[in-house]
Specification:
Helix content is about 55%, strand content about 10%. The chain has about 600 residues and is α+β, with helices and mostly antiparallel strands.
Length: about 600
């Protein structure tokens, strides 16, 4: 049976020492994030997820969800009771606006809870997961009546929300959607069509489900410029807030998936369902992007989450399992064999995961801080810079975070050897659950193209230049310290590789767009390496300063420094190889004709 212990000590380090959240106390919403409150949220969220949610993780995987003949869906054993505890404890209200019943704390604290939930039970976490994005979309684009009708109950956990984009014939290319929205005399619309892959599209956890649905009105352009957004509740809501009749939306089936079996991934049929437009006609994609960007950050956290839980169990197994002898001589001569923990290749896999997990945690929480600052920083210039940076970081957090999260979850399965392939040990579930994160909310190839095709050139390259400037400043400061200088110099070299790759795109992508497409995924990984390098350089600086004060938990900071050195030794050198792949261009990739890929008879 796998185990999970929330990494509360490392999270407190990131929130309190690296980000120094208390120093933002002069900004709206941050005043409540006192050190005592931060520690309470982290510790209690860790306890809830470790003790309540994690024991249901294998249960949910084994039982899955059940669709009944009437279209209703029941969740796995224990999920309803756990969700009731989730609601009662107010975990969904942490970072939600106070005006709608939330606690109004920084997004950083919301991301802390989100990580612990996704790590302890990813399928469960997905039920309330998209609700945060749905709330953001309604607040950003909805009418005052729509906000009042839906948002308070969604924040309270009384209702949950979904995002309906994909259809059987189209995925990423949303301009191809066929779902129709016919205007009605009362100002509503009749929504008709089929949506697939809808996470938490039907379940028994709440009394109502609020669907946000993309559809096209009559005469709308037959492209992405003709998409509108609609709010379509499972049950209609009366003027007094009570629930009325069942709406014309039903679950036609639930997918039988590779992983996340505890979450109901539904095909939803809309048969003249009553909906209301959110925002302007034909501007639905812009409103939906508010939700999608929130979801993409959440999926990046899922990549970290599955790597983290697999790592924790990999360490336990490596310390317990005995096989062979240490290469330098028996580590425990009195035993017949040494723990596999002594073998360098096992250490390689464990250290890779550790360095990624801690660096990725710092990046996700820094990203959450940027979200906060983009809305709440004191000056317009600061808000604009934070908005630029988080826009640039979003595809990296989602794409690089889930690519590497899956890789390291698989490596932890490898630590177990044959036992990792057997269901009872639980490791194969982490691998299966991690796999979806590379696919949904835009595949990682789409994330890479968003980064390279849109974000790099946005506003004349302002965001990437701000990113280069930020890292350059951190490197220059660190090089003044003899202990940090070697790490700073390695990051400086990797930054140079990214800058060179960026320039190569500028010189070679215009005349041949395939050059951009062929190198985009490599560039996303190159930027991921550099960005985690920034996090590790900052963490090394904080750890060194803490050690100068002779802290009680000296070993924690020494371990942090040792892991930072490992990251710069083992991750950062890959930057050069990625640049060379980018500069190879697209010629050899695109050279073969289609028939060359067919299997010879």
């Amino acid at each position: 049976m796998p185990t999970y212990t929330a990494p509360t000590r490392d999270t407190r380090f990131v929130v309190n020492e690296l980000l120094d959240l208390a120093s933002y106390g002069n900004l709206p919403g941050f005043e409540s994030a006192t050190p005592d409150m931060i520690d309470t949220v982290i510790n209690e969220a860790g306890k809830f997820c470790s003790e309540v949610l994690h024991p249901l993780n294998q249960v949910g995987d084994q039982q899955g969800c059940t669709r009944h003949d009437d279209g209703s869906v029941t969740t796995p054993e224990g999920f309803k009771e756990a969700f009731a505890q989730y609601v009662e404890s107010g975990w969904g209200t942490i970072a939600s606006p106070e005006e709608f019943g939330g606690q109004g704390m920084p997004h950083v604290m919301g991301f802390v809870v989100e990580e612990f939930m996704a790590t302890s039970n990813m399928a469960f976490a997905m039920y309330p997961g998209l609700t945060t994005g749905a709330i953001a979309a309604l607040i950003a684009a909805g009418t005052e009546e729509q906000k009042a009708m839906y948002v308070p109950n969604m924040i309270a956990g009384k209702w949950l929300g979904t995002m309906n984009l994909t259809e059987p014939h189209c995925g990423t290319d949303l301009g191809m959607i066929r779902t129709k929205a016919e205007p009605q005399a009362d100002g509503s619309y009749e929504i008709t069509g089929t949506k697939i892959f809808i996470s938490a599209g039907e379940h028994d956890l709440t009394e109502n489900i609020v669907h946000l649905v993309l559809a096209k009105t009559p005469g709308a352009p037959d492209s992405s410029k003709g998409i509108s957004l609609f709010v379509v509740p499972k049950f209609l809501v009366n003027e007094d807030g009570s629930l009325g009749e069942r709406n014309g939306v039903s679950c036609g089936s639930i997918e039988h998936k590779m992983g996340i079996n505890g979450n109901a991934t539904c095909l939803l049929n809309y048969d003249g369902a009553k909906g209301w437009m959110v925002g302007e006609e034909n501007k639905g994609l812009a409103a939906m992007f508010v939700m999608m960007n929130a979801a993409r950050l959440g999926v990046g956290i899922q990549g970290l989450a599955q790597s983290e839980i697999a790592y924790q169990n990999g360490v336990t197994y490596a310390l317990d399992r005995r096989q062979g002898r240490a290469l330098t001589g028996p580590a425990e001569p009195e035993a017949k064999a040494d723990p596999i923990f002594v073998h360098p290749d096992v250490r390689r896999m464990l250290m890779d995961a550790k360095a990624f997990n801690e660096g990725m945690r710092a990046l996700c929480l820094w990203g959450a801080l940027l979200v906060d600052l983009s809305h709440k920083a004191q000056t317009e210039e600061e808000r604009a810079e934070a908005d630029q940076l988080i826009g640039l970081m979003t595809p990296v957090i989602k794409g690089y975070g889930t690519d590497k999260g899956y890789e390291f979850a698989t490596n932890m399965q490898q630590v177990y050897g044959g036992h990792g392939y057997v269901k009872e040990w639980g490791m194969e579930q982490f691998v299966r659950d991690a796999r979806i994160a590379m696919i949904y909310e835009g595949t990682n190839g789409v994330q890479a193209m968003d980064l390279c095709g849109r974000k790099l050139a946005s506003k004349g390259g302002a965001a990437i230049q701000a990113f280069f400037k930020l890292i350059g400043e951190n490197i220059a400061e660190a090089k003044k310290d003899d202990d940090l200088a070697p790490m700073a110099e390695k990051l400086e070299k990797a930054l140079g590789e990214q800058q060179a790759a960026t320039m190569w795109f500028m010189q070679n992508a215009m005349q041949n767009p395939n050059n951009l497409g062929a190198g985009a995924h490599h560039y996303m990984h190159l930027m991921g390496i550099v960005t985690l390098g920034l996090m590790w350089l900052r963490m090394a600086k904080v750890a060194k300063e803490a050690l100068a004060g002779s802290p009680e938990d000296k070993a924690f900071y020494e371990t942090k420094l040792a892991t930072a050195r490992y990251y710069f030794d083992r991750f950062v050198p890959d930057a050069g190889a990625l640049r060379r792949k980018i500069e190879a261009g697209s010629e050899s990739m695109m050279a073969l004709p289609e028939e060359a890929f067919a299997t010879a008879a």
